[in-house]
Every structure is written in structure tokens, then in C-alpha cells.
């Protein structure tokens, strides 16, 4: 059923070499309300860049399984091309270790191929509504990286200069996510709206490149 409450960013570019995934994503997008003429497919970066020369994409879905390094690079180039573009990273659980790098590079949200169509549809909705998805595994990985960075700073205090770190609220959110609480439950605990919580999560993702990959 078409959901008319959504404002659909168009056009959409899907970067993937997997035909079955392309068809699956197209079917989900059509169910949400997209039209075929607003969905473009690319199997290589050259094809993707050619599409962007002729169409100003507002939403991109990037398959990181077969295009892991190129996919990360494409995320970065898309954010340079348009900082407001929505980007959904799609991957299998086998390569989820690349997820933090995708988020730090500018991906808006993520989903896994092993999820069912309803979950992927939910991830797409979250992405184009400007929300922020996070799950316990991601929160745990961010906290581990943060602890490693803090240990490095304690050994060499000069590292703390010009470093962007996590504040008390962000750490509290990550710890609650890591314990399995939902966004709604965390928002209630902190007495903030879910929209405010989304803003905190997006800010955490923006900080990843400073305290994880520098």
C-alpha cells in the first residue's frame, strides 16, 4: 500500500552489482510510493557518476558487499556533492564491520540484507524522514572505539587537542542502546522527544570520523 504521509526525495540512485538486490529494493520503493522513472540503477562508480551528471539525486542506496571500498568512497563523494542527500547503506551481516566507516563517511542509516522486506522498508522510511537508526551492536562498537581513544589520550594528553569526543548525554544514549532499550524507551528515560534523540544519534555519527578514524 502506498504511504501518502511521506515526502519522497527524488530521484533515487541505487548502486549495486546484485540484480536480485536491485529488484528487491525497487519493489520496496514502489510499495512506498516511488515511481519507476524516479529510480536509477548503477553497477559501477562510472555509471553512478554519469547518472549524477544528468540527475540531481536526493536519495542514494549503496550496496557495500560487492563495492565495499568503492561504496565508502562514493558515500564521501555524494556528501561532497550534496551534504543534504539521504544515504542508506545496505550490507550483509558478514561485512558489518564496515558499517562504522560508512556512518562516519556520511551514510544516514543502514540495513542488512538478511532482514525481511518490512525491516528494509522501515530503514528506508527512517532514512528519508531524517531519522537515525542505531542498534546494540553499533552502540557497543562505538563505545569500544571511544574507550580506545580515551586510553590513547590518557597516555598522550596532547591528542585531546582538536579532538571531538562524546559528551555525557551521548554516552548515556549509547549505553542504553547497548543494553537493548528502544529509541522510544530511551527518549522516555531522558525525558526528551524521539526527534531530539535522533538528533543526538546523528551527532554521534558525525563525530565518528574524529575519534575513530583519525
Observed structural traits:
transcription regulation, 2 domains, globular, 5 strands, Oxygen regulatory protein NreC, 214 residues, five-stranded parallel β-sheet, Rossmann fold, Sig_transdc_resp-reg_C-effctor, single chain, DNA-binding, Arc Repressor Mutant, subunit A, alpha/beta, DNA binding
Structural write-up:
There is one protein chain. With 214 residues, the chain is an alpha/beta fold. The protein has 2 domains: 12-128, Rossmann fold (3-Layer(aba) Sandwich), CATH 3.40.50.2300; 136-211, Arc Repressor Mutant, subunit A, CATH 1.10.10. The chain contains 9 helices and 5 strands. A 5-stranded parallel β-sheet has the order 2-1-3-4-5, with helices on both faces. It starts with 11 loop residues before the first strand and ends with a helix.
Give me the secondary-structure topology.
Blueprint: E1 12-15, H1 19-32, E2 39-42, H2 45-54, E3 59-63, H3 68-81, E4 86-91, H4 99-105, E5 109-112, H5 117-128, H6 136-155, H7 168-178, H8 183-190, H9 194-211
Parallel strand pairs: 1-2, 1-3, 3-4, 4-5
Helix pairs in contact: 1-5, 4-9, 6-7, 8-9
Kindly name the structural category: alpha/beta
The global form is: globular
What are the low-pLDDT stretches, counting only 5+ consecutive residues below 50? 158-162
CATH topology of the largest domain: Rossmann fold
The CATH architecture designation of the largest domain is 3-Layer(aba) Sandwich
